[in-house]
Design a protein that fits this description.
Helix 24 links the parallel strand 28 and strand 29 (797-803). Strands 7, 8, 9, 10, 11, 12 and 13 form a 7-stranded mixed beta sheet that branches. A 4-stranded antiparallel beta sheet has the order 6-5-14-16. It has 894 residues and is α/β, with parallel strands linked by helices. It binds one RNA strand of 78 nucleotides through strand 8, strand 12, helix 7, helix 10 and strand 25.
Length: 894
RNA sequence: GGGAGUUUAGCUCAGCUGGUUCAGAGCGCUUGCCUUACAAGCAAGAGGUCACUGGUUCGAGCCCAGUAACUCCCACCA
């Protein structure tokens, strides 16, 4: 059979993915097996696959595939997130390109465009995930705004409102002037920026003769906000400003007279110790405004331009205005000085626009109580974080949690199910009443029953924060909000593992835990695996602006999905950032090729039914089985601890080193000779199981190899059966008891082989030259002679003789205390040998000295455990023996 | 300003409860090989004062204290 010497993943991967889909192997239905559930962190419906997704979804796929092969009913639910702000922005841009202004069309029209856009371009990312090999149950693909999820969100809102956990209020919120919406505290990123600190003069209103000065200097980074100033504040104990008590000052440029107030909030050290107060545009100022009953003057429009209160600056953008007003103040001689200043400025997570604190009516959710429960389940390890250092971050946030601003001034999203109407009060005023209900019909009913109102209702214009739907994801995916007792939610919930990035621990992870507690009385998942951030080889974050992010699909095309998956996983221990270099995908590709060629080798063997299994082959098979059992135990431990890269590395070494470099070389028949049936079958069986172990990491090539291995396994019926089956549903081998002695014996034999090879290498002997080997065994048991045949074969040794004393005219090496001699056909370089022996002697003597020092220490001998002391004594004996042997050899050389 | 984490080979990281020759792995590097599975390969090598300074201990990458550098998170000082 002719097999190409290079593995080509392209054709293979495409074919098998389709096969898996055709056979519905990703699909899960509740049954008697134990479930294993993962819900995908829903990517933005507008998103395209980037390296972060690749990492995240590779990890999920590894876990799901492994669980499936371990006999669990594995279900990985995919879906996308409607991503209010991001998607609305995209749709607005799309409309703009078509010459349509959002403001000119109705809400319904806009939503029609948005849905069209979503249908056409949305969810590309899910298609891309297939290229990666993701074994999601695509039949279950969900969207945070599809019917089930929409209704779930609305129900939860109504429920929380009725429980008194959701309220509407006028608060200072983070306003995104570009997206024209409020955003939550978590959506604001504070970035360091190089600003200026302006020192402005506020002249005293109606100064009298006792005034020490005619003005007070106030420092600000935002001079444009003086237009909204309604006070100046100093510290009540500030000696410098006692004379200002009860006075008023004139706001520069504006000419408004405002009071001096005194409050301990002011930091006397900062600036001049005098603070201007703009209650409409700063949270702290707002609080002071409330406290001192100050007037609130809003100077901005929603888009960040100055409104009519801006006077001559009305209509200007806030940053344009800043320059203009400074110029004017400068000219008016009202600027004391200007300093360079570094501060943190809030930017919108989504649009990167500078956040403007803005007073507005918004919906909030009370978090204090629900946070308590969410903290408990992580503290007591009902939910485990990997790595667990994120517990700290989590705790800190929950202990300092504030109410969650859940309303957004957008159209794309879940519209808030609140309806308003005007009601006349007893004294003739009009009052706005609010009704919260599942739909308008319900709202009408309530309005009629509760208020006796039957007129028109006006629904709230706002939609809910995107995370207000994401936090229900593990429940709503199984329809557990609308039908809390349905079979699916009972079966699949709680899910097992959540794989996500640490930057959404508050946005998403914490809130899902809260929702789980609130709506299921149970945690939504048992383990959270936090991935690192994918960085480029220089350690920078991958970003569009830098253009340093490789295109995942191009990578897959070049290295194969298996290769890319392996590359990503190898450098990605949980929680560690991974410096990604496309070169590491090469390692994955090379590995695939290595396996491919192992297949070529095995398939190339002629098999003989007449031949009996040789003893060497028998022990080789025996050893490989033990070795697998041993490594399997390691791998199981790695998975228990969520150390996926370790698990993969162990699998990699088992296949490349133990299987390919050692086992296959051990049993490989001489050129032209056949292999015995027994060894061949064992080899195939081992190869198969190695593929099972590797399958979660490299799904495509393992499926391909597995099928090719089956080909000549005998009867046609079986072959047909296999052809229709998949490696995906085979049983993952489990670790069993293994014989450590046999493993050690083989290691010893491998050391001897390496010793001989080293000799060849250093003496320039051809691998083809047959050598003779003498082993001096003091106690005979040091070598398991069952491996002799293997040593002869792999070291190209004609004969191994066990002798009781050293051989003259030979070069030597030591394995532990065991001396090995190889007679040389040519003259031995005595000088070089002596030098080598001297070095060895020096090392051995140094070692002995350190052991002696320990043993000479009475405190050690008395204090340390018996076992440790015994080991030390053994070391001493070994070292002495070794030294004696080396000395004898040196003697011989002379 | 508060908190957390990291520092081990050229690079990326392991190193469990302090105790075998414990100083490891992968990649990279060096040398020799186109040995009929694989040059995307084979074989053999070289590479480290475990950040620094003290301490505890019979014994310290490992525990403690301090120092330095880096990273991340949180926070309304204009």
């Amino acid at each position: 059979m002719e097999i190409a010497s290079k593995y080509d993943p392209r054709a293979v991967e495409e074919r098998w993915y389709q096969f898996w889909l055709d056979k519905k192997l990703f699909h899960s239905e509740p049954d008697r097996r134990r479930p294993y559930t993962i819900v995908i962190p829903p990517p933005n419906v507008t998103g395209v696959l980037h390296m972060g997704h690749m990492l995240n979804n590779t990890i999920q796929d590894v876990l799901v595939r492994r669980a499936r092969m371990m006999g669990k009913n594995a279900c990985w639910v995919p879906g996308t997130d409607h991503a209010s702000i991001a998607t609305e922005a995209k749709v607005v841009n799309m409309l703009k390109e078509r010459g349509i202004d959002k403001r000119d069309i109705s809400r319904d029209e806009f939503l029609k465009y948005a849905w069209e856009w979503k249908e056409e371009y949305g969810g590309i990312i899910l298609k891309q995930l297939r290229k990666l090999g993701a074994s999601c149950d695509w039949d279950r693909t969900a969207f945070t705004m599809d019917d089930i999820r929409y209704e779930s969100v609305i129900r939860v809102f109504v429920d929380l409102y009725n429980k008194g956990l959701i309220y509407r209020g006028v608060r200072m919120v983070n306003w995104d002037p570009q997206a024209l919406t409020a955003v939550s505290d978590e959506e604001v990123n504070y970035k360091e920026s190089h600003s200026k600190l302006f020192y402005l003069r506020y002249y005293i209103d109606n100064p009298d003769s006792s005034d020490k000065s005619k003005y007070i200097v106030v420092a600000t980074t935002r001079p444009e906000t003086i237009l909204g100033d309604t006070a100046v504040c100093v510290h009540p104990e500030d000696e410098r400003y006692q004379w200002l008590k009860g006075k008023r000052v004139i706001v520069p440029s504006v000419g408004r007279s405002v009071p001096i107030i005194m409050d301990e909030y002011v930091d006397r050290e900062f600036g001049t110790g005098a603070l201007k107060i703009t209650p409409a545009h700063d949270v702290n100022d707002y609080n002071l405004g409330m406290k001192y009953n100050l007037e609130t003057i809003n100077i901005f429009n929603d888009n960040g331009t100055l409104n009519e209160n801006g006077g001559k600056y009305a209509g200007q953008d806030r940053f344009v205005c800043r320059k203009a007003i400074m110029k004017d103040l400068e000219e008016a001689g009202l600027v004391e000085k200007v300093e360079d200043y570094v501060n943190k400025v809030g930017h919108s997570e989504r649009t990167d626009a500078v956040i403007e604190p803005k007073l507005s009516a918004q919906w909030f959710m009370k978090m204090t109580d629900i946070a308590k429960k969410a903290l408990e389940v992580v503290e007591d390890d009902t939910i485990q974080f990997h790595p667990d250092k994120f517990k700290n971050t989590y705790r800190h946030w929950l202990e300092n949690i504030k109410d969650w601003c859940i309303s957004r001034q957008l159209w794309w999203g879940h519209r808030i199910p609140a309806w308003y109407f005007e009601q006349k009060t007893e004294n003739g005023d009009h009052r706005t009443e609010t009704v919260v209900a599942l739909n308008e019909e319900e709202a009408r009913k309530i309005a009629a029953e509760k208020y006796g109102y039957t007129g028109e209702l006006r629904q709230d214009e706002d939609v809910l924060d995107t995370w207000f739907s994401s936090w229900l994801w593990p429940i709503s995916l199984f329809d557990g909000i609308r039908n809390p007792d349905n079979e699916e939610i009972k079966y699949y919930y709680p899910t097992d593992d959540l794989i996500t990035a640490p930057d959404i621990i508050f946005f998403w992870v914490a809130r899902m835990i809260m929702a789980g507690e609130e709506y299921r009385g149970e945690v939504p998942f048992k383990h959270v695996y936090f991935t690192g951030i994918v960085r480029d080889e220089k350690g920078r974050k991958m970003s569009k602006q830098l253009g340093n992010s490789p295109d995942p699909l191009a990578l897959i095309n070049e290295y194969g999905a298996d290769g890319v998956r392996m590359g990503m996983l190898l450098t990605a221990p949980a929680g560690n950032d991974l410096p990604f270099d496309t070169k590491i995908c090469e390692q994955g590709r090379n590995f695939a090729n290595k396996i491919w060629n192992a297949l070529r080798l095995v398939k190339g063997w002629a098999v003989s039914d007449e031949l009996n299994q040789s003893d060497e082959n028998a022990v080789s098979v025996e050893w490989m089985e033990q070795r697998m059992a041993c490594v399997l135990a390691d791998i199981e431990r790695d998975f228990d601890q969520y150390r996926l890269s370790e698990a993969l590395m162990n699998t990699y070494k088992l296949i490349w080193d133990d299987f390919c470099s050692w086992f296959l070389e051990m049993v490989k028949p001489a050129y032209g000779s056949p292999i015995d049936r027994e060894t061949y079958n064992a080899t195939i069986s081992i190869f198969e199981r190695l593929m099972y172990m590797l399958h979660p990491f490299m799904p495509f090539i393992t499926e391909e190899i597995w099928h090719l291995l089956q080909d000549d396994h005998g009867e046609e019926s079986r072959a047909k059966l296999i052809a229709e089956s998949s490696i995906m549903i085979q049983h993952m081998p489990a670790s069993v008891f293994f014989d450590q002695r046999l493993l050690d014996d083989c290691t010893r034999a491998r050391e001897v082989i390496a010793g001989v090879r080293n000799l060849r290498s250093s003496k320039g002997l051809s691998p083809k030259e047959e050598l003779e080997l003498f082993i001096v065994c003091s106690d005979g048991s040091a070598m398991n002679t069952r491996f002799d045949g293997i040593i002869r074969k792999l070291a190209n040794v004609k004969q191994i003789s066990y002798v009781d004393k050293k051989i003259d005219g030979a070069v030597s090496f030591m394995i532990g205390t065991m001396e090995c001699f190889v007679p040389m056909s040519q003259n031995i370089d005595v000088e070089a040998e002596m030098k080598k022996l001297e070095e060895e002697l020096k090392y051995a003597e140094g070692f002995l000295a350190s052991v002696m020092k320990k043993l000479g220490n009475e405190k050690f001998v008395n204090g340390a455990p018996e076992k440790v002391v015994a080991v030390e004594r053994q070391k001493k004996a070994d070292a002495e023996q070794k030294i004696a042997a080396i000395k004898a050899q040196m003697e011989g050389l002379k």
